[in-house]
Specification:
2 copies of one chain form a homodimer.
Chain A: H1 6-15, H2 30-42, E1 52-56, H3 60-68, H4 75-78, E2 81-88, H5 93-107, H6 115-127, H7 131-156, E3 159-163, H8 168-175, E4 182-191, H9 209-212, E5 213-215
Antiparallel strand pairs in A: 1-2, 2-4, 3-4
Helix pairs in contact in A: 1-7, 2-7, 5-6
Chain lengths: 216, 216
């Protein structure tokens, strides 16, 4: 283990904030960005199904279009990086089998030995939910990846801003997501705060612990 | 800044796994647990509304009841800590005002100066969504806190297991949530893996990056 300290964790979570103005000149070091992509990849999800796609948009022309579909928020073009968190919209038995095949490959076990896991996944994902409920559930999973990403960026000292203020149908259309069986859920921008972002200096606002946490 | 290194971040995210067997004798150091509670408190949420409650269940008798409502999964009683992530079920204008009042207090600004933020929050949360959509949206936010919690625990070297396999209505009833305007969404257990947890030694299964990440 190569753990972080409590002071690092809490200090960096206090340091982070939803960055409103990024310095458009500042890039993220490639090795840092690779670590954040790896954090996305390693993000937990229910049953490990990973029913998501992370779309990293670097193309400036596409960014411009997305900005127009995102209430003209400057982060969308100014941040060094933009990630569109997308969900699979047609979740079927094949998604469960894709995961099982990956398990079999990585762990060198037979698919037959995974039959109990398959039965559980089929029951809880395919049989217990209709198509709409499945997508709603998979969308919630996407927010685990968002939380992983934001916490990871904070730990590395990289500014980020999660954003729901955009038109998902417009984003989907610009990125060609429907034909890929995907839909945008939430986005995050990352980079370095502008020296004059007035939000950077504001005190963080969170309820006191006793208002959000109950002990039983 | 007191950042973690890329190696720490990626190393600890690889170290973590959904712990199936906890050592019931191993507790979490109080200072470490306090840091994890602080990570929950500091978790980002849309517009900063924090429409959640984290229920930390220490009472062994309550844990026993919850285990029965959680497919008898041993983590629910054996883990040092159990957190039930709950969402507010009646989200109204008052929730927006509670947040604005906290901003005014913490930042020493007038409520009047926050009128534009209030207008945005009212439009996007109250006017744009009906009660059902609001709860569905708030539930997604809860998963940001879950991602924050799991990543934070991994960074500190604390084992954890996110769990959706439980009966939310039964959990709600055992914890008395409906009368508090809350509903359970997802749970997490935390502590130290048992020496004989056979899952601890298994290779982590994630799709290769090019299967979950697209560059545009």
């Amino acid at each position: 283990m190569n753990t972080a300290s409590r002071e690092q964790l809490v200090g960096q979570l206090n340091w982070r904030y939803a960055t409103k103005a990024f310095d458009p000149q500042k890039k993220i070091e490639p090795a840092d960005w690779a670590a954040l992509e790896e954090a996305l990849r390693l993000s937990p999800s229910s049953i490990g199904l990973q029913l998501w796609k992370f779309i990293v948009v670097d193309d400036p022309a596409v960014r411009e279009k997305l900005r127009a579909a995102g209430y003209a928020q400057p982060q969308i073009t100014d941040a060094a990086k933009l990630v569109v968190f997308a969900v699979k919209t047609d979740i079927t038995e094949a998604d469960i089998d894709a995961h099982l095949e990956e398990i079999a490959k990585v762990r060198g076990v037979s698919l037959e030995s995974l039959a109990p896991l398959r039965g559980m996944a089929m029951a809880s994902v395919i049989q217990a939910m209709d198509a709409e409920a499945r997508v709603a559930w998979a969308k919630r999973q996407v927010y685990i990846a968002l939380g992983t990403f934001l916490t990871s960026a904070a730990l590395l000292g990289i500014d980020a801003c999660p954003m729901e203020g955009f038109s998902p149908p417009d984003f989907d259309s610009i990125l060609g997501l429907p034909e890929k069986g995907l839909a945008s859920v939430v986005i995050a921008t990352a980079g370095q705060r502008a020296a004059d972002d007035k939000y950077a200096g504001l005190a963080k606002v969170r309820f006191p612990l006793d208002r959000v946490l109950v002990r039983i």
